[in-house]
Amino acid sequence: MKISEILDKIKQWDCNLVEVTGGEPLFQDECSDLLKELLQYGYEVLLETGGSLSVKGVPREVIKIVDFKCPSSGMTEKNLWSIIDDLMPFDEVKFVIGDREDFEWAGKMLNKYSLSKKCTILFSPIFNGIDPSLIADWILEENLPVRMQIQLHKHIWKPETK
Fold first, then answer.
1. I want to staple 132 with a disulfide (CB 3.0 to 4.6 A). Which of 22, 92, 125, 141 is the partner?
2. What is the pTM of this model?
3. Closest CA to 88 of 63, 53, 116, 57
4. Alpha-carbon dihedral of residues 32, 35, 39, 41, nearest 10 degrees?
5. Cα–Cα distance for residue pair 145/93, rounded to 1 Å
6. Which residues face 152 on adjacent strands?
7. Segments making up each domain of the chain, as ranges
8. 138-148 per-position pLDDT tens digit
């Protein structure tokens, strides 16, 4: 889909916020161009990225949501921790939690990289994988400076909906 087609599609709705997500947007050659175009049209722009690719080419004004991978994902070795140096206070780091090990690991990363001093931190349960109330209880017990988040779109629409 061309950038102009994406912009035409977005203009159908009376909105001022656009989130670019799905798979890994930064794998798309024209992602940065799309983000710049959206900003030029006055949209508030969010980019959700998987935490394995540099965000240096992302316009500063874009709110970056970096989804660092926890142990249960089997992909922790793909995390590019140097991204943290490029984060702004309005950006977010997200950990998708599947079990207690993920929770404890995310807490260690929170401390190791002083993440809560850099930006907002999100803990999100794996959809249909762990009871969100468990994570909420753990957050309260540990008094962690994080926000709890669920994947609302998966509760509204079928999880496989694109």
1. 125
2. 0.90
3. 63
4. 110
5. 12
6. none
7. 3-156
8. 999 999 999 99
In whole angstroms, what is the distance from residue 133 CA to residue 161 CA?
25
**φ, ψ (nearest 5 deg) of residue 92:** -135, 145
Please give the backbone phi and psi of residue 112, each rounded to the nearest 5 degrees, phi first. -55, -40
Q: Read off the amino acid at residue 25.
A: P
How far apart, in whole angstroms, are the C-alpha atoms of residue 87 and residue 99?
Answer: 27
pLDDT score at 63: 98
d(CA 25, CA 136): 29
The predicted structure's pLDDT at residue 11: 92
Q: Which residue has the tokens 């762990």?
A: 130
| 3-state DSSP helix/strand/coil % of the chain, to nearest 5 | 40, 20, 40
Structure tokens at 113: 């990289």
> What would the two tokens of residue 148 be?
């709890």
Question: What residues are paired with 122 via a beta bridge?
Answer: 94, 147
Q: Pick from 31, 85, 91: which is nearest to 64 by CA?
A: 91
Instruction: Enumerate residues 6+ apart whose C-beta is below 8 A from 26.
Output: 47, 49, 53, 55, 58
- Domain 3-156: CATH architecture, name and number where available: Alpha-Beta Barrel (3.20)
